[in-house]
């Protein structure tokens, strides 16, 4: 009886061991493989592989650190607002440079035009800008004197070419210090010259202009000049109707009567 009990106990123990081994095998089958082996050479290979892997991670970490340092916002700006500000600054700089270039071009063109007004002898010298301005300042008074001389010469020629007045009227004019002459330039224009000595008489020019205006004369231009002898010449340029008959003698006498009042 005791033997049967011992045999049964041993059988149960064997069955339990078999079940435990079966359960353990199932657990190992579904468990992940171990990262490191603890038996023989595989352990050394794992250690060597681990060291190489650690070295790889270290190098990769250093490279990533340097790459991140290069992409640091302090070194490379990726802010859209700052990029836009840089673009605007560049555009303003380009616009300013273009405007400055156009301004200098216009100034050079103006100086070239001014230089072209000088005498040919000065143009051939290729004067600089300061010398050009200095020469122009001297040349303007020369031109003014030349123009005044030409105007006097013109009035003297017109006075000599104007029709002769009657002998009595001319003598009366010279005796009183006034000389008046008029001539028709064309069908619609009349020139009237008045001469007197400035040291002796003052010409009532306003009364003369008013009289001629009331008589149908339209004033176009008035000029005056004085000779070295103190004689003053007034040149009156008028427009008249083509159908108006100009009586030079009558007009001269009327103007002389106004001046001798």
TrEMBL record:
Any single Pfam family the record assigns to this protein: HLH
Domain of life: Eukaryota
Chain ranges of the BHLH domain: 91-143
Localization (cell): Nucleus
This protein's UniProt keywords: DNA-binding, Nucleus, Transcription, Transcription regulation
Gene Ontology molecular function: any one: RNA polymerase II transcription regulatory region sequence-specific DNA binding
UniProt GO BP: cellular response to iron ion starvation
One annotated Gene Ontology cellular component of this protein: RNA polymerase II transcription regulator complex
Gene3D superfamilies: Helix-loop-helix DNA-binding domain
InterPro entries linked to this entry: bHLH_dom, HLH_DNA-bd_sf, MASH1/Ascl1a-like
Main localization (coarse): nucleus
The protein's name: BHLH domain-containing protein
Source organism per UniProt: Pisum sativum
């Amino acid at each position: 009886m005791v033997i049967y009990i011992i045999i049964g106990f041993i059988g149960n123990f064997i069955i339990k061991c078999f079940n435990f081994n079966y359960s353990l095998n199932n657990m190992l089958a579904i468990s992940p493989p171990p990262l490191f082996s603890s038996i023989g050479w595989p352990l050394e290979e794992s250690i060597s592989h681990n060291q190489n892997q650690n070295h790889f991670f270290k190098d990769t970490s250093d490279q990533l650190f340097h790459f991140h340092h290069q992409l640091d916002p302090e070194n490379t700006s990726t802010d859209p607002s700052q990029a836009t500000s840089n673009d605007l600054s560049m555009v303003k700089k380009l616009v300013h440079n273009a405007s400055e270039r156009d301004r200098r071009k216009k100034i050079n063109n103006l100086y070239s035009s001014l230089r072209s007004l000088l005498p040919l002898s000065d143009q051939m010298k290729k004067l600089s800008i300061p010398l050009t301005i200095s020469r122009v300042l001297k040349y303007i008074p020369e031109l003014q004197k030349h123009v005044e001389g030409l105007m006097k010469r013109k009035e003297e020629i017109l006075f000599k070419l104007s029709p002769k007045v009657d002998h009595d009227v001319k003598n009366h004019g010279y005796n009183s210090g006034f000389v008046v002459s008029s001539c028709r330039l064309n069908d619609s224009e009349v020139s009237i010259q008045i001469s007197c000595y400035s040291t002796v008489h003052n010409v009532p020019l306003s009364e003369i202009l008013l009289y001629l205006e009331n008589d149908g004369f339209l004033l176009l231009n008035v000029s005056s000049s004085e000779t070295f002898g103190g004689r003053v010449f007034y040149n009156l340029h008028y427009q008249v109707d083509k159908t108006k008959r100009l009586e030079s003698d009558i007009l001269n006498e009327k103007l002389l009567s106004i001046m001798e009042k």
